[in-house]
Amino acid sequence: MDKKTAPVLEIKSLKDSGEFEGYGSTFGGEPDAYGDVIAVGAYAESLAVHQAKGTMPKLFWQHNSDEPIGKWLNAKEDDHGLLMNGKLNMDVQRGREAHALLKAGDIDGLSIGYRIKEYSVDTDTGVWTLEKLDLVEVSIVSVGANENAIVQSVKAAKAAHDLFEKLKAGDRLTEREFETWLKGLGLSNSQAERAVRLHLKGQGDPADTADDGVAFLRALAG
């Protein structure tokens, strides 16, 4: 499931050619705005896979896959976090705009898009420690522009992830849990509600229709 980190305000350098350096995320410390802590080494496996394939995470504007604005040249972990070296595409309007905004100091944030591979949860605090991540992209972001939307998206993704684990364990989901899980997959409120009506509130014996709903969920999970 794709997720995003809270922005990190650490652009370290910027050249007129469009080359720049900054941290995509930092390790340890206090939980970020979404209640996550990223463990040292969380990116090691993903970076090794990228290196073996000769690929790099994508460089997007505001996590929008329709707006690539350059490319990442290098990515590595150090004691502080995920250090990224990239180059903005100055032949692309959005790349030039991003460069101008960075140069003026109007924006200065980076944020990663990733999939969770391994994690642990502190049941007392609710803090997630992300131990192994599949790094998909690192975006230049304007901090605060979509913060509430991103927070809500991440909260929904976490809830859906927990429900998916419940489903894998063989437990039956309630109607509300089913709806939450579908929203976490990207369905709108109306689409999720309609799916609940179709697959958990069908005709016949309630237990049979509930079993049909679980089968439907398992098919979605692939």
TrEMBL record:
Keyword field contains Disulfide bond: no
Record's keyword annotation contains ATP-binding: no
The species this protein was found in: Georhizobium profundi
Protein name from the UniProt record: HK97 family phage prohead protease
NCBIfam families registered for this protein in UniProt: proheadase_HK97
GO molecular function, one term: peptidase activity
Keywords per UniProt: Hydrolase, Protease, Viral release from host cell
Record-linked InterPro entries: Peptidase_S78_dom (IPR054613), Prohead_protease (IPR006433)
Domain Prohead serine protease: 10-155
SUPFAM superfamilies in alphabetical order: Herpes virus serine proteinase, assemblin
Any GO BP annotation: proteolysis
